[in-house]
Amino acid sequence: MKQEVAYWRSTRNVFREIGEVSLFAGRFFREVWRPPYEFREFVRQSYLIGYQSLPLVGVTGFIMGLVLTLQTRPTMVNFGAEGLMPSMVGIAIIREIGPVITALICAGKIGSGMGAELGSMKVTEQIAAMEVSGTNPFKYLVVTRILASVVMLPLLVIIADSIGLVGSSLVEYVKGDVSFRLYFTKVFDSLQFGDLLPATIKSFFFGFAIGLVGCYKGYHSRKGTAGVGRAANAAVVVTSMLLFIIDFIAVLVADIFYKL
Amino acid sequence: MNAPMQTVEERRKRGPQTPLIRLRDIHKAFGDHQVIRGFDLELYEGENVVIIGKSGSGKSVLLKCIVRLLQADKGQIEVLGHNLEAIDQYSLDQLRVDVGFLFQGSALYDSMTVRENLEFPLRRHPERMGEEAEEKLIREALDSVGLGSAIDLMPEELSGGMKRRIALARTLILKPKVILYDEPTSGLDPITSKEIIQLIMDIQEKYNTAALIITHDMDCARVISNRVVILVEGTNYAEGTYEELYRSEDPKVQAFFK
């Protein structure tokens, strides 16, 4: 009986949380069009989210390209298909691995940062202080962060993809004696518009999910400093799960368009 | 010439006035815990009303209800003639400009310098006054709290007393008609507390603001108040001047003065 009660309570909490996040998203879409526009804060957030994530995203992308090529190369050689390596790695990175890995890295760096920063502002009453000075803290803190995240994530994905391909081409150059020019010619020959478009579109959704959940968790943080830690942690966990769900839906939708 | 602070007697002599803040039968609960159970209060122009009560008695909750950071469950709140129940968000934001709020923990924006903390409310106003006028206001507010030299410091570089002063300057910069102080001297040493109390009085004289102050500090209540309200079990248990309450023989009232 106790277990059943706990089960229903946690199920109800999950649905309540989904409802609250949806309302939060709805408020974002309402506020984003209304003046005043916090352009300076949006630029600052874009710098923090985009520029300051570049080293991490760059290194991750490079290693992603290196590892993927090193791991798959022996199998491809066994099948005598090493000539297909650039195409395979290129499509894999651009369609799937690049966006997902970059989004996961950003969920860890950006999402947790937003959760912790807004959570800390909440518990030290800085958000309340904005409110009582007649400012809309949602617009200043949340709208700018989500927008910056939506705009910056696709750019970070493109950079991570490019650096990943450079990493992969380096392995091909060393192990397979494939020139960089030949490698990239093969990659671009095998890529189609239909590979790039869904990957780019889903990156916008990834950015939205990271910004939305990070801000939601921070903005609704409670119970002191422990609550700030929980907000940062929950931002990463929930966003990571959400990213895979969005990715699954994106693949399903893209598949329908491929068939058409 | 600023209007001088008025005592209860003076106000009685002057006859009926419209209160700046009027609370009627306020109730507020958190879950099953009823914090405020029918609280009434009126705050008049030029007046300093101090609310004292035990920790957890709902003093901060009351202040937050007045600026609608919290919504009262029942009762009527009128601020500067506006009924908070019937006000839209835009009008509420406009109203909040006229009601300053000093938070217990100062609540300075820790990613901004002192200058940016003071600029923040100014720059988000429909009637922006231009950078020169804003700079002048910032300097004036900082000079009022005696911290003109701290303009480029970050909040982490300030002591507790300095933070409280900067927060007060940020509150003053919008020239509010009423200031709500949430424990202005808590966590400060006796000397800094006295400085903050003197500062609050100087500010009231200079800017002619009314103030609602909640505190545990009886020295602060004695020096600052025109009127003291004792909050017990969510209601205004006793009300009067500091001296009247000090002389009261009610054991619940006496408990605060012993």
TrEMBL record, chain A:
Cellular localization per UniProt: Membrane
GO molecular function, one term: phospholipid transporter activity
Designated name of the protein: ABC transporter permease
UniProt keyword Transport, yes or no: yes
Membrane topology classification: Multi-pass membrane protein
Keywords: Membrane, Transmembrane, Transmembrane helix, Transport
InterPro entries (alphabetical): ABC_MlaE_roteobac, Permease_MalE
Recorded family membership: Belongs to the MlaE permease family.
Residue intervals passing through the bilayer: 49-70, 140-160, 199-219, 231-258
GO CC terms, sorted: ATP-binding cassette (ABC) transporter complex
Lineage: superkingdom: Bacteria
A Pfam family of this chain: MlaE
Provenance organism: Flavilitoribacter nigricans (strain ATCC 23147 / DSM 23189 / NBRC 102662 / NCIMB 1420 / SS-2) (Lewinella nigricans)
Lineage: Bacteria, Pseudomonadati, Bacteroidota, Saprospiria, Saprospirales
